Amino acid sequence: MAETTLVDFTSEIASPVLSVTRRIARNGIVVSRCDIPVNPGTQIVTAQFALFMHESEPLDLICRLPESRRTEKYPVAAGHFHLSPADRAAHVGWTADKQSFVIAMENSFIERTIGNAFDGRVPEIRGRAALRDPAVEELIACLRRSLIDDSRCGGLCLDLVGTSLALRLFETYGENGRPPPSIRGGLGASRRRRIVDFIEAHLDEDIGLAALAAEAGLSPHHFGKAFKTTFGKPPCRYITERRIQKAKEMLMSDGASITEIALALGFSSHSHFTDVFRKMTGTTPSLFRRNCT
């Protein structure tokens, strides 16, 4: 029997089949960029459900998936992705060095974020190779930005986009599950007031999607859709706008330094606050304060 190589994206131990060049992990989802050397053929199993998106030059992928007895060759180019269910070994090889963007999801993340959408019966996903899906590509583009944005807002986007990606994958490629119910309406008046008050009271903290959903008494997936229906924007955007509005008030009336204001509103640094403020207003905090005095 061929030796099997385990790839665990939560582990700090180096893998013999890939090298992680950058990684962020939060609440059971791990996003990584990996350099992967040429491989003539290896039995590989992932410890988490994983999506591998190809980001480099075209090559051939040769694989025998867990549910198949046949070895097949797939031409792969940038944008193709593969799905690897947790703990299901596949024999795979590729004809050149490559770079992949990988999203790994723990079972706890999948059950917590989308379990309710399928009435507690999350579909099964078989190993799949060389898929293309414009909706998945758009969501992964957002996750690429989260990989380089280590701000608290980036963490919230990781929660929200990761949940949306999980729902898309399990709804589209899953089997033996229940279809998710349709979402109608927004948060409702009482939930809306509760969420607004919660956000205002925690602007200086890392407000995660899971915390907001728990405050509303909804699953993260249902909450994200209901929030956008109610406010016309995702939670991350709303929270950023509220922080910038509060910053304007403090710049006009508070004697605190710009660094103090940045930290008081949950920004990681003076420069991070300045970058976000400029993107939202077209000017810097210093110029805004100067023009208002």
UniProtKB/TrEMBL annotation:
Protein name as annotated: Transcriptional regulator, AraC family
Listed PANTHER family: ARAC SUBFAMILY (PTHR46796:SF6), HTH-TYPE TRANSCRIPTIONAL ACTIVATOR RHAS-RELATED (PTHR46796)
Domain HTH araC/xylS-type: 193-291
Gene3D superfamilies assigned: Homeodomain-like
Annotated keywords: DNA-binding, Transcription, Transcription regulation
One GO MF term: sequence-specific DNA binding
Top-rank lineage group of the source organism: Bacteria
PROSITE patterns, per database record: HTH_ARAC_FAMILY_1, HTH_ARAC_FAMILY_2
Keyword Transcription regulation attached: yes
